[in-house]
Amino acid sequence: MRQPLPADMFDELCPSSLTPIRFGDKWAALIIRCLEHGPRRFSELRVPLRRVTPKVLTQSLRSLERDGLVKRTVYAELAPHVEYELTPVGRSMLEPMAVACAWAEQHWNELLDARESYDNATRLDRAG
């Protein structure tokens, strides 16, 4: 039996949310992290990705599948179900993602300060 994904796997203050390096869509990197330790059902992915609507999660999974990063397997058993898992190409993203997350962690305060400064300046521009 595999371990369930922790609900707080992606805290809102997680460095991965500050990583400026993106591929796919906003949620692709988080989905790949969820699949790092093996296949998962959609309902399992929903636990740590609770901020993602089911529609957007489905779109993201389809996009990752189209790009060859995720494999979707349908099990037509007594209780049919679908599982998603990383392909070898998808697995190859784990190392660069770890480097990007480490970079974001190292520059956490600078990134937050830059965002806050930008947001404050944008608010002043719109108000003035």
UniProtKB/TrEMBL annotation:
Coiled-coil residue windows: none
Domain HTH hxlR-type: 14-112
Pfam families (UniProt xref): HxlR
Top-level taxon of the source organism: Bacteria
Gene3D superfamilies membership: Winged helix-like DNA-binding domain superfamily/Winged helix DNA-binding domain
Signal peptide (residue range): none
One GO molecular-function entry: DNA binding
Keywords per UniProt: DNA-binding, Transcription, Transcription regulation
Protein's recorded name: HxlR family transcriptional regulator
Organism: Micromonospora maris
